[in-house]
């Protein structure tokens, strides 16, 4: 079990084995902020421009997939990589939402910024939901505020 994943400023990956007792929840996810700006609001501009084409994180993702073949590794947001148990992704959560709320998948719409192969929002597309790709939170607000399905 991996409990800590860190990135140096040059993108070098370090994995630390879990040393404590106990087990992680089946639905537990690890969100990896892969930049030094993850905790500093003043660097929002730099964060948004650190990896706009996902090229840096694709390299990190491939490395993690080799090191952690039993896990699902997906990119999301401006600087994050999600590591989850295989099968525990956004599609899993959306199916649980359907089961508990009674809302049919055909009636749902999913808004996300990583709706592409390898993106953490892609499972919603694979599930067959109507999806809308946005760039940032402002895009989400504009999309939701418009009330239009084609915005």
TrEMBL record:
Binding site for alpha-D-mannose 1-phosphate: 80, 82
Entries under InterPro entries matching the protein: HAD-like_sf, HAD_sf, PMM
Record keywords: Magnesium, Metal-binding
Any single biological process term in GO: GDP-mannose biosynthetic process
Listed GO MF terms: metal ion binding; phosphomannomutase activity
Statement: the UniProt record of this protein carries the keyword Metal-binding: yes
Keyword Magnesium: yes
Needed cofactors: Mg(2+)
Residue positions binding Mg(2+): 113
Taxonomy, superkingdom: Eukaryota
Protein name per Swiss-Prot or TrEMBL: HAD-superfamily hydrolase
Classification of source organism: Eukaryota, Fungi, Dikarya, Ascomycota, Pezizomycotina
């Amino acid at each position: 079990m991996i409990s800590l994943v860190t990135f140096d400023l040059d993108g070098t990956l370090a994995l630390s084995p879990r040393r404590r007792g106990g087990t992680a929840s089946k639905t537990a996810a690890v969100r990896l902020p892969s930049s030094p700006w993850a905790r500093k609001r003043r660097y929002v501009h730099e964060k948004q421009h650190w990896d706009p084409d996902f090229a840096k994180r694709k390299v990190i993702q491939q490395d993690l997939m080799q090191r952690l073949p039993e896990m699902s590794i997906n990119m999301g947001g401006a600087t994050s990589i999600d590591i989850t148990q295989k099968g525990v992704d956004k599609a899993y959560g959306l199916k649980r939402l359907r089961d508990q709320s009674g809302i049919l998948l055909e009636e749902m719409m999913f808004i996300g910024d990583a709706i592409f192969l390898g993106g953490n929002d892609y499972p919603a597309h694979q599930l067959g939901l109507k999806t809308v790709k946005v760039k940032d939170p402002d895009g989400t607000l504009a999309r939701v505020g418009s009330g239009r399905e084609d915005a």
